[in-house]
What does this fold into?
Amino acid sequence: MSAFINNFPVLAVMTLFVGGFLNSLVGRRHAVLQKIVVLVAVTGALAMMLALVKPVLVDGEIITYWLGNWEPVEGWAIGIALEVDALSLFFGLIVVVAVFVSGVYSFTYMSRDDSLVNYYTLFMMLGGSVLGLVLSGDLFNIFVMVEIMTFTAVALTAFRSHYEGALEGAMKYLVVGSLGSTFLLVGIAILYSQLHTLNLAQIAALLPEQSDNPLAGVAFAFLFIGFASKAFLFPFQPLAADAHAVAPASISLMISGVLTKCGVYGIIRLCYILYQNMDLAVVQYLVTGFGAVTMFICVTMAFQQHNFKRLLAFHSISQVGYVITAVGLGSALGVSAGLYHAMNHTIFKGLLFLTAGAVQHQTGSLDLDGLGGLSKKMPSTTALFLIGAASISGLPPFNGFASKWMIYQATFQKGVETNNFFFIIVCVLALLTSVLTLASFIKVTQSVFFGQLPEKYKDVKEVPLLMRVPMWILAVLCIVTGLFPTQVQNWLLLPATNAVFSAASYIDAAMGEGYAALHNIVSSGVTSLGVSTCWSPLSWLALLFCVTCAVTIVALLGGPDNKEDSHVSTADENAEELDPKYEPFFSGEESVYSQVGGSDLFWGFKHSWRKYFTFWTNWHSGVVNDYTLYGVVVTAFVLLACIIVL
Amino acid sequence: MMVTNYIGCFVLIVLGLYCMVVKHNLIKIMMGMGLVDYGVNLLLVTVGFHYGGTAPIFNIAELTRASFFVDPIPQALTLTSVVIGACTTAMSLALGIKLKEQYGTLDTRKIRRLNG
It folds into this structure.
């Protein structure tokens, strides 16, 4: 049995790919058969990854599969390997769950579109390529998977080509995304020229000996930028915003929940396993700096948005910034916080994109200024959206709170330990970003679900059951992972974090026992995460409840006096004079439709920061040349830093 | 000989990046993407080349410690990369045709409805 389970990684990847191609063979005639093929394939992949949980996460095995049975000869890996350690499986689980939910959601959501065969084929290839990427043990294989992922994502972004901007978003994604892939390939070529191998385990064993080789530093810079572009870190975030805004919601879930995780996975693999240079202060500054900048800029950009999904896209990248910030700290707590937030990000962001898709499906609009009052018509969707919004803003007892708390703790601890001002600033930025996220979601909630219902949306109905089920799955996951953080830590985060810090066993599993020791690679692993014990979401919920009660009481106590005052004054005055029609400066008809528009809710804040906002709005110019330029400039900067310091 | 190759691929990549950053015509940007691709392919082939090596085609029996041949792996990588480059070009051209239909122009300064 255990021998057969070793085939599951490759089978899971193949199931998705074969399902995709089978779908284009049989699905053209039979719409039902098409859905069955998709459902079987995504369920199969999900089941196989779940079957791997016991040996990999619980027993701590590392499964290595050599394609074509080409095992290493005399210490040289000559074949292509799939290597599944706890880190790979952690991301693999995220991927298959997201693919499953997105697939089920698509059945109803995409039912009004034509050429669905192409959609499902591309969709399955996207899922398969991402799964292949996180399970792969070969650097070039990773590049190929990144390319498949980019192309299918571009094609799916442009799938509804009649939407305004769909082609434009796809084009920008293709141009700048292929720039990122090219940098990845340059990094691989340079690395190969120095080490003559592509196997991740062997690279990990040989690289630390090359620490004074400047070319290794150059390769690091290129690989880092390549993965950063796939995670849409600064300065690549405009691509994500453009692609999300125009892609179907099920694909937005894939782009935000799955594609960005590839970048995160790549950066973790690169810094912790391949180069093992995360204890260098420079690398910590680099990775954490990228994360913190991304986190803050994206959340402020989200304030400026009038498109529902474009706003969500900026928040999505902002949360990825959180993940990278935590990962860059180099401590066990930081890595586990990053992994936790990565998982939660897929869940709550997927939920939010799906609710946005539900709104779009029923009303045909994503315009924040035009929508309103949908809570009366779509109560279930509203509840789901509120769960997602509370999670992303980090309110207890949802999962966003638990992981963000760990991130604050990790950054603060790092700042105290190193006595470094940089990490203190990062900690403050993380807190600030969370506040701004909450503010921004209040705006969305107000302008889409509450307020007045416009006349044209009078007949809007709740979405069909088949669309609500995937959303409820994600919502339940939001609550469960938030309510039981200790269990999540023990079962998921601790094995994955341990895998991040035990490069030696990763090398030994692929190259044979003792190979790591031969190259002087020792790693201790992690046995505990060091989260402070007094942390319980429920007590925070109680605190929040008390504060809310206190605020309510104060507000109620202060209320009646004002009311009486105003009442008295109205009685005194002539009613006609109070009518705004006859006031000297504000005369005119009273406006009938008086909802506070979503964009006006924080006008004071936006006004006082207008120079900052104008700068970044102009920065996101929409011209693809500018985006390429930013990418090239930042690459040059990272390259210089790595050559000088590494 | 090898230095020329490295200089060549550096020049190709820089020229391609220049095209992508400066030129506003979408077709020229695609050409730039192609140039960067070719530069990287040249880099890959050069990395695996050993001066004076033979073609890497052997039986297991013929293969000895003394046999000297060029590294076959980068050539395989280059082949894959060439295919991917062709796909990039095809895909971007297809998008270009559709964009021309929708926007009536290929000037990137005018294709900027998604901004801010």
